[in-house]
Amino acid sequence: ALGGDSLTSLDIGYCHEALTDVSVGHITRHCTQLAALVLRGGKRLDKPSATLLGRWKHASGLRELDLMGCVHLLNDSNLAEIARPWQPQADQAEQSDGAGMRALNLSLRSSDADGCRNPRDYPLSGRSHLTDALLPQLATACPQLTALQLTDAQDLSDAAVVTLLGALCQLRSLDLHKCGKLKGTHVVKAL
């Protein structure tokens, strides 16, 4: 792979032909120095990509991950798999070197759900299927997050977002645009 081992940033967002589970496999095998990876618009990425990202031995060096519009990856089970490299290990001391995921984009726009392979998997076209259950996993896996985008996550509750805010002490940017279930008063009070 020409240059893959020296790349620190890779943006193949909306390169629809390039955004496949096979290409994610290639990235996880050959791009050992990535600090930023943009897979935005990867409608064809599915469980194999989640597994590859979750088992990527160099993922701990990743600081920014953009999965906006990756409709088949934006559910609790796939995101829990993807977050595995940042989960603290029982035998591992707390990281004090500032390492860890810094920016994570898990947004879904209404146009992203167009063309889903199985409409039953995404009955609320254009809505992210992130639930409250994922937020504690994100906080545990990525405690150093400074930016988090959860646009159009219709199933998140105020209580879960407030808990997330309490756990992510370094969070500087939070995008909850179009998170329809949120009332907002408890979230705003927690700021």
Structure description:
Helix content is 26%, strand content 9%. It is built from six helices and six strands; from the N terminus they run E-H-E-H-E-H-E-H-E-H-E-H. A six-stranded parallel β-sheet has the order 1-2-3-4-5-6, with no helix packed on it. Strand 1, helix 1 and strand 2 form a beta-alpha-beta unit. Helix 1 runs parallel beside helix 2 (47-54) and helix 2 (47-54) packs parallel to helix 3 (76-82). The termini are far apart. The relative contact order is 0.12. Residues 91-97 and 110-127 have low confidence and may be disordered.
Note the overall shape. globular
Question: How are the strands ordered across the major sheet?
Answer: 1-2-3-4-5-6
Order of helices and strands: EHEHEHEHEHEH
What would you call the structural class?
Answer: alpha/beta
What is the CA-atom radius of gyration, in angstroms?
A: 16 Å
Query: Kindly, what is the distance between the CA atoms of the first and last residues, rounded to a whole number of angstroms?
Result: 46 Å
Mean pLDDT over all positions: 77
Biggest sheet, open or closed, and with what strands and sense? 6 strands, parallel
Strand portion: 5-15%
Would you report the number of β strands?
A: 6
- Percent of residues in helices comes to 25-40%
SS summary, helix count: 6
Low-confidence residue ranges? 91-97, 110-127
Task: Give the arrangement of secondary structure elements.
Layout: E1 9-11, H1 21-30, E2 36-38, H2 47-54, E3 64-66, H3 76-82, E4 103-105, H4 134-141, E5 147-149, H5 158-167, E6 173-175, H6 185-190
Parallel strand pairs: 1-2, 2-3, 3-4, 4-5, 5-6
